């Protein structure tokens, strides 16, 4: 729960977090140094920026002139320092104008909403399209080459971006519970704005300000480059580039200090903005730039001997790691189970148990930052973890197919349903367009889609979730796979539709004889369709057994607890009513039994060692050393 | 689709009004006007007053704005207070130059940016990091400075291309091409790198979507996944970013035209600024705004074509 007292902590946090990164320290340090040097130019500059010495023109850097001299023999370093003053003043004017416009308008539109909001947003939309440069030129003409007027105008016209973001934040804050609570407590609007909304926008404001400052430097130097700023002898960065241009053929070096410093300043501001954005971003998701994989096992074409056994799919000791900002984290540890043709194995567990990762690992489709680090996935006598990309690709769709959790996002939104199905059909078999079309209609009928002809012409956003899941099933069946992996196939659907889709899956399985690996957290689904169950917890399988045995009497406290937490689905009440706590995040498991902290039966011995899988009978294993206590419960 | 285009077209009227109102309004509230500008500092108060009357500057500014607007609607943007030349016709003569710079730049940014961004996203590794770094430099290096470096190398040092000047496309296609290569390159740097970065980020996002996983998992060949599905879906946000960067290029064009002494709208506007020639600046404002409107319409159109949700409704 966020409260007002959290805010100052987070506020200091932004600065500290930025300075904790190398690029944050470098860019902030550079900008501060630049700022200080320019500010102190009258004290530290080695020479008078206007002092000419026609004896020493166009010199390259030397002890006397660190950055050389220009065409009038003036000291380049001194001119840069003095020129920086006008650039910095320009940035500050622009930034101030932007803040003065964006912050109050953003807060007001977001917090008040209504007609005022609509009007301002409409106006902001239009202002976004104004060709800013012409307005700036007009301002410079009217205000007699006043860069200050131009920068203030730039700030005002450029305020809409920041305003939009602040408005968004203000709207979120307004809707959040704690503000409604604050309103009830009698806080005034001003207090809410200053205590709740503005602190939250802090990161956004810093990001936008530094990006805007980068833009402003570009424009300010551009305008002075065009000679539209303070008249000649005065030093400006853009003006120095312009002077350098006149001696381009005789002394090209002169371009370097002025242009280079502009570029460095813009670069520092841009990178600083990005850094702040990164550290304030709420979620470091996969798009966060981490693209390196943990060491993946080499594909091994000469296959290692495959262990005996007749199962269609046999997962042995499978370990998977992900590379996260905190380092490599193991999310699956020694996962194993078997699945025969015609069987349906339910992978059951809470979210975070690793069941979906297991399913994706079987397919060889882990996220870019994940990799199999150990164990094997034997499918039809071949180890898929050692298969090459090409071998895996050849299996997909024809031998192993997938339907996923969110049917609405599983279909490509840009293509018609018929075209997607037809492409999948044609990637399995060489078919003419017409033959593919017939096969598509046949598949659509098979999954009981009404009016296939019409349905094929629709886009995914034009059909319901249940329909989309049927389309996905049709796609998966297109290659007549031997194994169907279904990742929570009904979770996202309406309750009424769930039963239909399950019935469809059951029927198709009966007709085709394929094996199904079903990921679910719903015991009702398990009871409905599965023949076997593998219960997963914190990256391990903790119990595997035929479904009747599990429902008869769970042999692991976690299985029991999981069933108890969905009482209407579980056939029998078990000792633990609900599971307190949550699955420990990967890499933070307790020693010994991973379920120890939440287990009602845990004892001292549970902490001693990793708990092995205990074989209870021919078909049943459990990762608990005190199962007999559980069996003994009434 | 129709509604989207209509909405954008309807927005263009207030946009044009706002641009001209800002310029007109500011000029009206600031002391010093066209009459004293024309006559210079040595003018007598009497002659200034006479010229004011002649130019209609004694009317309230609303009246003058109405007058200007009435003319503008008929394609008459007034006359330059310096040269007395008709603004509309002098702008028309220069539009081709600016378009010769803008259109190739936008096309190059789109093609090279998408190609680089896409390649770096699907290849990853070194190319990806290279794009990340280069896009930072594309953002940081001022275009006029890049232009000067290009001139220093290709024109002064290698003597391959002209340093300045413009040749008409109709008069000499080869000369035209030579005269725009360096300006287009200098102006494209920012566009290419920006589009490349946006493409890279979008493609990486699309590669992680459920539907790409679903297509792969069910046997669609990787080539089709990438070039049909990923490219198509990534195109929608990329087109939007191309629009943004194209509008931004108008500012860059002003700087670049000055570096290369191209007789386009930007260099005209710069000269007009030095001369305090407001009617010309207003005219350039109208032309630039029309460019923005055209770019936005094209982008909306492309967006509508790419996005079935817009196309179908
Ligand atoms: S090993 Fe101990 S802690 Fe773990 S499930 Fe069994 S009883 Fe509970």
From TrEMBL, chain A:
BP GO annotations: peptide transport; transmembrane transport
CDD domains in alphabetical order: ABC_NikE_OppD_transporters, TM_PBP2
Residues annotated as transmembrane: 26-45, 88-112, 119-141, 147-166, 204-228
Membrane disposition: Multi-pass membrane protein; Peripheral membrane protein
Signal peptide range in chain numbering: none
SMART domains: AAA (SM00382)
Chain ranges of the ABC transporter domain: 315-563
GO MF annotations, alphabetized: ATP binding; ATP hydrolysis activity
Pfam families (UniProt xref): ABC_tran (PF00005), BPD_transp_1 (PF00528), oligo_HPY (PF08352)
Annotated segments matching region Disordered: 284-303
Keywords noted in UniProt: ATP-binding, Cell membrane, Membrane, Nucleotide-binding, Transmembrane, Transmembrane helix, Transport
Principal subcellular localization: membrane
An annotated GO cellular component: plasma membrane
Localization annotation: Cell membrane; Membrane
Domain ABC transmembrane type-1: 88-273
Similarity-based family: Belongs to the ABC transporter superfamily. Belongs to the binding-protein-dependent transport system permease family.
Classification via NCBIfam families: oligo_HPY (TIGR01727)
Name of the protein in its database record: Dipeptide/oligopeptide/nickel ABC transporter permease/ATP-binding protein
Organism in which the protein naturally occurs: Actinocrinis puniceicyclus
From TrEMBL, chain B:
CDD domains found in the cross-reference section: TM_PBP2
Protein name, UniProt field: ABC transporter permease
Membrane topology, record value: Multi-pass membrane protein
SUPFAM superfamilies reported in the protein's UniProt record: MetI-like
Subcellular location: Cell membrane
Single biological process term from Gene Ontology: transmembrane transport
Parts of the chain that traverse the membrane: 95-118, 130-156, 176-196, 234-260, 280-306
Any Pfam family: BPD_transp_1
Domain of life: Bacteria
Keyword terms of this UniProt record: Cell membrane, Membrane, Transmembrane, Transmembrane helix, Transport
Record-linked PROSITE patterns: ABC_TM1
Gene3D superfamilies attached to this UniProt entry: MetI-like
tRNA processing listed as a keyword: no
CC terms in the record's Gene Ontology section: plasma membrane
ABC transmembrane type-1 domain residues: 95-299
Gene source species: Actinocrinis puniceicyclus
Family: Belongs to the binding-protein-dependent transport system permease family.
């Amino acid at each position: 729960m966020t409260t007002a007292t959290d805010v100052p902590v987070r506020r200091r946090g932004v600065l500290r977090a930025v300075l904790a990164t190398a690029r944050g320290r470098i860019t902030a340090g550079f900008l501060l140094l630049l700022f200080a040097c320019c500010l102190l130019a009258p004290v530290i500059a080695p020479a008078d920026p206007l002092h000419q010495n026609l004896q020493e023109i166009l010199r390259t850097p030397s002890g006397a002139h660190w950055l050389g001299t220009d065409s009038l023999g003036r000291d380049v370093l001194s001119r840069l320092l003095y020129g920086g003053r006008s650039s910095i003043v320009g940035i500050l004017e622009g930034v101030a104008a932007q803040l003065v416009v964006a912050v109050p308008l953003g807060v007001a539109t977001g917090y008040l909403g209504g007609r005022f909001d609509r009007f301002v947003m409409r106006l902001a939309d239009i202002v976004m399209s104004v060709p800013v440069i012409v307005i700036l030129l007009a301002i410079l003409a009217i205000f007699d080459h006043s860069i200050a007027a131009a920068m203030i105008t730039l700030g005002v016209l450029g305020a809409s971006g920041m305003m939009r973001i602040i408005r968004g934040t203000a709207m979120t804050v307004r809707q959040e519970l704690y503000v409604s609570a604050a309103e009830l407590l009698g806080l005034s609007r001003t207090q809410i704005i200053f205590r709740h909304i503005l602190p939250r926008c802090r990161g956004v404001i810093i990001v936008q300000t530094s990006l805007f400052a980068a833009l402003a430097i570009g424009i300010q130097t551009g305008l002075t480059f065009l000679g539209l700023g303070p008249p000649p002898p005065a030093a400006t960065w853009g003006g120095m580039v312009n002077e350098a241009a006149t001696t381009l053929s005789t002394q090209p070096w002169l371009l370097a200090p002025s242009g280079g410093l502009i570029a460095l300043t813009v670069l520092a501001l841009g990178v600083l903005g990005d850094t702040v954005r990164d550290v304030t971003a709420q979620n470091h998701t996969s798009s966060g730039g981490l693209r390196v994989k943990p060491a993946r096992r080499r594909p091994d074409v000469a296959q290692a001997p495959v262990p005996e056994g007749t199962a269609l799919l046999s997962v042995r000791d499978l370990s998977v790691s992900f590379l996260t900002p905190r380092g490599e984290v193991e999310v699956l540890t020694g996962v194993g189970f078997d699945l025969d043709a015609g069987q349906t194995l339910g992978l059951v567990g809470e979210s975070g148990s690793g069941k979906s990762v297991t399913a994706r690992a079987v397919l060889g489709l882990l996220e870019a930052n994940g990799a199999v680090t150990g164990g094997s996935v034997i499918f039809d006598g071949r180890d898929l973890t050692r298969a090459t990309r090409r071998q895996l690709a050849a299996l997909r769709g024809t031998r192993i197919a997938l339907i996923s959790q969110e049917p609405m996002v599983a279909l490509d939104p840009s293509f018609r349903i018929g075209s997607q199905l037809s492409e999948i059909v044609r990637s399995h078999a060489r078919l003419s367009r017409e033959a593919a079309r017939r096969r598509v209609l046949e598949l659509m009928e098979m999954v009981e889609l009404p009016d296939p002809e019409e349905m094929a012409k629709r886009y995914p956003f034009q059909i319901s979730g249940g329909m989309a899941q049927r389309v996905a099933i049709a796609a998966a069946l297109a290659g007549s796979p031997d194994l169907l992996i279904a990742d929570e196939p009904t979770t996202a659907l309406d309750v009424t539709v769930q039963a239909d889709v399950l019935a469809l899956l059951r029927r198709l399985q009966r007709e085709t004889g394929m094996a199904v690996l079903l990921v679910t957290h719903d015991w009702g689904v398990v009871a409905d369709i599965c023949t076997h169950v593998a219960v997963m917890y914190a990256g391990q399988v903790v119990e595997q057994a035929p479904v009747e045995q599990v429902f008869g009497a769970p042999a692991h406290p976690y299985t029991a607890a999981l069933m108890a937490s969905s009482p209407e689905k579980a056939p029998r009440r078990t000792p633990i009513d609900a599971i307190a706590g949550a699955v420990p995040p990967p890499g933070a498991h307790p020693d010994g039994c991973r379920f120890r902290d939440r287990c009602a039966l845990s004892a001292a011995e549970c902490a001693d060692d990793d708990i092995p899988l205990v074989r209870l009978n021919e078909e049943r294993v459990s990762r608990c050393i005190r199962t007999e206590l559980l069996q003994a419960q009434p | 689709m129709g509604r989207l285009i209509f909405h954008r077209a309807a927005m263009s009227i207030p946009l044009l009004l706002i641009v001209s109102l800002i310029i007109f309004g500011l000029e009206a509230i600031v002391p010093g006007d066209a009459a004293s500008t024309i006559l210079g500092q040595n003018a007598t108060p009497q002659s200034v007053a006479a010229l004011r009357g002649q130019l209609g500057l004694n009317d309230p500014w609303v009246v003058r704005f109405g007058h200007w607007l009435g003319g503008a609607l008929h394609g008459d943007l007034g006359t330059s207070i310096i040269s007395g030349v008709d603004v509309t016709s002098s702008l028309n003569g220069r539009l081709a130059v600016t378009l010769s710079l803008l259109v190739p730049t936008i096309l190059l940014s789109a093609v090279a940016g998408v190609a680089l961004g896409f390649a770096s996203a699907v290849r990853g590794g070194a190319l990806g990091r290279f794009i990340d770094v280069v896009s930072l430099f594309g953002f940081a290096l001022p275009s006029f400075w890049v232009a000067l470096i290009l001139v220093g190398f290709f024109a002064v040092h290698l003597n391959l291309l002209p340093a300045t000047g413009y040749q008409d496309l109709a008069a000499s296609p080869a000369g035209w091409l030579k005269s725009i290569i360096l300006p287009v390159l200098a102006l494209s740097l920012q566009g290419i790198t920006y589009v490349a970065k946006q493409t890279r980020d979008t493609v990486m996002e699309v590669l992680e979507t459920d539907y790409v996983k679903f297509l792969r998992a069910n046997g669609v060949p990787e080539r089709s996944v990438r070039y049909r599905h990923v490219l198509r879906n990534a195109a929608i946000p990329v087109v939007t970013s191309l629009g943004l960067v194209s509008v931004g290029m108008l500012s860059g064009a002003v700087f670049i035209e000055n570096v290369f002494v191209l007789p386009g709208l930007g260099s005209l506007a710069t000269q007009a600024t030095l001369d305090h020639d407001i009617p010309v600046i207003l005219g350039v404002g109208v032309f630039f705004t029309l460019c923005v409107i055209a770019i936005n319409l094209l982008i909306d159109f492309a967006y509508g074509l790419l996005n079935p949700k817009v196309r179908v409704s």
